Amino acid sequence: MPGELSPKTPYAKPLPDPNPVTQPFWDAAKEHRLRLQRSRKTGQFIHYPRAVSPFGANDELAWEDVSGRGHVWSYTVARRATAPQFESDVPYVIAIVELEEGPHLTANIIDCDPDTVRVGLPVEAAFVDVTPEITLVQFRPRSAPAE
Amino acid sequence: MTLRGKTAIVGVAENRPTRYTEGATTLGMLADVAMRAIADAGLEPAEVDGLLTASFAEAPFMAPATVVEYMGLDVHYSGVVDLGGATGAGMVARAAAAIAAGLCETVVCTTAARRERRTTGGQRGSASSGFAGRRVDRTPESEFETPFGAIGANYGYAMIANRYRHEYGVTPGQLAKIAVAQRYNACHNPDALFFGQPISVEDVLASPMIVDPLHLLEIVMPAAGAAAVVVTSARKAKRLKQRPAYLLGAGEHTTHRGITYAPSLTNTAIKAAADAAFAMAGVRRKDIDLASLYDCYTITVLLTLEDAGFAKKGQGGAFVDGHNLQFDGDFPLNPHGGQLSFGQAGIAGGMSHVTEAARQVMGRAQGRQVRKCETAFVNGNGGIMSEQVSLILGRDR
């Protein structure tokens, strides 16, 4: 499955290169928590992490944990690898997940048959430790539908 | 201020798309095609006082001066336009704005993509298309999309297609018909990459599934090429040898870069761009004789037909069923073959929708000339439905 950590071979896929603004996201992921920035001005969560609020300079962004629950906004099943490093994963699902808190994230839908993924499928965050430094936030189908 | 009728495209040049280039530099290609566009207009280089170029890897900065120097130009206005597939259309709008504002009178707009057989680095073997190949770390894309294999553009358009199917519905055959009609057109264009290779709906549906639900023949094949146009004032256009293609309207809209952050997958930024262009031009949808729509994928065309206002939202599939999209049909679409069948020469592929619309309005499209082509609609689409630029070109001001 995408993101599986093998102890023998080094992780060969592209890795994120966090910067000071985004580091809290990755620090939380490493602790298997999903944490996003939230606007104090509007109450809205945003993703990806930013150095400035899209709601203006008189706003402040604060980090807050979110549920990790959402649904598939859309998806595709890659029948051919989108890049050479992903060839052994074919077929794999690339999806945009809409979190219950609003923001959209791109991730793979793992731990399922790719052909069962549909728009609207309820999913939950799945934290995959791919290197000692990086944990990717993936998603897997969630049995109970969203409330 | 309006740009309506203030400027015109008066010169066009384009390379025949090829799979690869051998040893050519992007700079040389940009200059060569620009010079040929100037000659096509019946102008001397000394009469050109503006230059817009696409960005290219060989000149990571100061690209305009690099091209100006190489061409031996002397300009009062220059710049890079960096709108992905909308670059060509965006150049025409920017050139027109600069001319109307009095900064210059005649602007050459040039785009080129080389593609070497052997490439080092780059994920898709694309040497300098401006779309891929230069790895830049610490971008939102490299941090939050690339690690998941969300690389290139195929996956994004596939997600758009799946969302569209969920919200409105479209059959694989309806999408395939778009590719088939464009291939028919390409078979009437000796310059097209797929000239002489007709396809059927069955061929499209039998081609390999690349990213669900997009088949191989619904996806552009990377190519190399170059395309340029010359834009000048209406006053000057009247005195030149070519019949001008006047710019009647232009509109633009951008909201996102990565598809993850698009406000909607099915109601796109095209609507605002097209509405602005039609409002400026003062023409109606039914006045359009030719639609030159950016077509990186079949789903792109379907969404553009709807959001540009030719088909009702959700009725794109029925529209495709109900019309003949060939150059000799009742709704001529991409008579050059579109990028799907003419070829997607990187950044120059987007310009091909401008050059084709201009040639058609000028009456110079030879064996694929659309009858009575007086008004053309062009849409340029950058990234994954990111930057949108719409133009309306007309035979009369």
Summarize the structure in words.
The complex is a heterodimer of chains A (147) and B (397). Chain A is mainly beta and 147 residues long. Chain A has one domain (23-141). Chain A has one helix and eight strands. The longest helix of chain A has 8 residues, at 23-30. The model of chain A has no long low-confidence stretch (mean pLDDT 94). Chain B has a single domain, classed as 3-Layer(aba) Sandwich (Peroxisomal Thiolase, Chain A, domain 1). Chain B has helices at residues 26-40, 63-71, 87-100, 140-144, 154-167, 172-186, 201-206, 234-237, 270-281, 298-307, 316-322, 338-341, 346-362; strands at residues 7-14, 50-54, 77-81, 106-113, 209-211, 214-215, 225-233, 245-253, 290-293, 375-381, 388-394. In chain B, helix 1 (26-40) packs across helix 2 (63-71) and helix 6 packs across helix 10 (298-307). The two termini of chain B are 16 Å apart. Mean pLDDT of chain B is 95; it is low at 120-135. The chains are: A mainly beta (147), B alpha/beta (397). The A-B interface holds A 2, 13-19, 22, 47-48, 73-86, 89, 92, 94-96, 104-108, 118-120, 136, 138 and B 123, 137-138, 140, 142-152, 154-155, 158-160, 162-163, 166, 208-214, 258-261, 265.
Nutshell version of this structure?
The complex is a heterodimer of chains A (147) and B (397). Chain A has 147 residues and is mainly beta.
Q: What are the SSEs and their pairings?
A:
The complex is a heterodimer of chains A (147) and B (397).
Chain A: H1 23-30, E1 35-39, E2 45-46, E3 61-65, E4 69-78, E5 92-99, E6 104-108, E7 122-129, E8 135-141
Antiparallel strand pairs in A: 1-2, 1-3, 4-5, 4-7, 5-6, 7-8
Chain B: E1 7-14, H1 26-40, E2 50-54, H2 63-71, E3 77-81, H3 87-100, E4 106-113, H4 140-144, H5 154-167, H6 172-186, H7 201-206, E5 209-211, E6 214-215, E7 225-233, H8 234-237, E8 245-253, H9 270-281, E9 290-293, H10 298-307, H11 316-322, H12 338-341, H13 346-362, E10 375-381, E11 388-394
Parallel strand pairs in B: 2-3, 2-4, 9-10
Antiparallel strand pairs in B: 1-7, 1-8, 4-7, 5-6, 8-11, 10-11
